Amino acid sequence: MAINHSPRPLPEGTFKRHAPTGGQSCWFHFIAAVKSDLERLLSSLSIHPLAEKRLIDGTGIPTVDEYEGYIFLSLFIIDPSGRMANVRLLAAERHIIATWMSLTRSSAL
Fold this sequence. Notes:
By secondary structure, the protein is of the alpha/beta class. Helices cover 26% and strands 39% of the residues.
């Protein structure tokens, strides 16, 4: 199951309703993520505090961090139109949380 989230706050209970059950997994994809939604999701998953901070605030350089039970990846991309973005992934056995944050050229330097 995949949930694509645009920059509008989600209704209370959204993450609980879409939590994986049985052998299922879930991919949460946030575009211009609402910080409160990310914080709410991460607190419900008991994610390491440093991984939470990196997913929410990003990193200044491409990063791969390994934690017990999951991995964090942050990278910078340039799309065909020349726009820059920071893509962040937090992957575990049953869920993937992805964020896409557009950057201005000055904020990426």
